[in-house]
């Protein structure tokens, strides 16, 4: 049976962190700098896509399928497309949270600080459930973009790979939160959103306690 936030203290959990939504960017940046599996994976994924994009551009120029200027313009188009994918990205988060049992889901957008959040109000997610919800948009959208890039012409491949690059960069928040769990892997960490307070709570207990 899913835990409710009010159950956490009686189950041996204690407050680890409370992060205001408006402070989420510096929080995830901090944990992206930690030497965890997910921070390293995110860095490696970005580097791999940059390499693939460079190879595609050089290949396209070499075989006269694009010029340098048109190739770069195609990549910029891809960056623009990545912004259009933000609503889909957050919707996939919500679907994943609902599949794991969340009932009250919504979104928070702050254009001034440029963050977008899928909120699962009062839903207590353990490491496994949170990992599923956090990775879902990255996995689904990356697969779709890679498959599409392999099936279209060179100019469109550049556009879709450019989109993949920026979308992967946009996933930094998800990977930063995953890195937080990884950083505290010696504990049993759970998290939940409080929509009214606009903050994210993290609780933990010793793994050997139960």
User: How far apart, in Å, are the first and last alpha carbons?
Assistant: 16 Å
What's the number of extended β-strand segments? Answer: 6
The count of domains is: 1
- Count of helical regions: 7
Strand order of the largest sheet: 1-6-5-4
Low-confidence stretches: none
Percentage of residues in strands: 15-25%
The radius of gyration over CA amounts to 19 Å
Mean pLDDT: 95
- The percent range for helix content is 55-70%
What is the overall shape? Answer: elongated
Largest sheet: 4 strands, antiparallel
Structure explained in plain terms:
The protein is an alpha+beta fold. It has one domain. It has seven helices and six strands, in the order βααααβββαααββ. The chain has helices at 24-32, 37-62, 68-84, 86-99, 127-151, 154-170, 172-183, and strands at residues 14-20, 105-110, 115-120, 125-126, 187-194, 199-206. The strands form two sheets. A four-stranded antiparallel beta sheet has the order 1-6-5-4. Helix 2 runs antiparallel to helix 6 (154-170).
Key descriptive features of the protein:
single chain, 210 residues, alpha+beta, two-stranded antiparallel sheet, 7 helices, 6 strands
Give a brief outline of the structure.
The protein is built from 7 helices and 6 strands; from the N terminus they run E-H-H-H-H-E-E-E-H-H-H-E-E. By secondary structure, the chain is of the alpha+beta class.
Q: What is the secondary structure topology, with strand pairs?
A:
Layout: E1 14-20, H1 24-32, H2 37-62, H3 68-84, H4 86-99, E2 105-110, E3 115-120, E4 125-126, H5 127-151, H6 154-170, H7 172-183, E5 187-194, E6 199-206
Antiparallel strand pairs: 1-6, 2-3, 4-5, 5-6
Helix pairs in contact: 1-7, 2-6, 2-7, 3-6, 4-5, 5-6, 5-7
């Amino acid at each position: 049976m899913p835990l409710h936030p009010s159950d956490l203290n009686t189950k041996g959990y204690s407050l680890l962190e409370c992060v205001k939504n408006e402070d989420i960017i510096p929080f995830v940046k901090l944990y992206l700098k930690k030497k965890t599996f997910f921070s390293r994976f995110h860095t490696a994924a970005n580097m791999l896509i940059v390499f693939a994009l460079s190879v595609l551009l050089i290949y396209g120029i070499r075989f006269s399928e694009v010029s340098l200027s048109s190739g770069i313009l195609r990549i910029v188009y891809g960056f623009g497309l990545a912004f259009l994918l933000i609503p889909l990205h957050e919707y996939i988060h919500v679907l994943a949270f609902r599949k794991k049992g969340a009932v009250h889901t919504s979104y928070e957008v702050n254009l001034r600080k440029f963050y977008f959040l899928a909120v699962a109000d009062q839903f207590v997610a353990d490491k496994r459930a949170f990992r599923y919800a956090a990775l879902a948009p990255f996995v689904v959208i990356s697969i779709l973009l890679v498959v599409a890039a392999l099936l279209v012409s060179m100019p469109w491949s550049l556009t879709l790979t450019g989109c993949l690059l920026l979308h992967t960069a946009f996933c930094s928040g998800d990977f930063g939160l995953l890195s937080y769990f990884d950083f505290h892997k010696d504990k049993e960490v759970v998290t939940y959103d409080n929509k009214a307070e606009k903050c994210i709570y993290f609780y933990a207990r010793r793994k050997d306690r139960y």
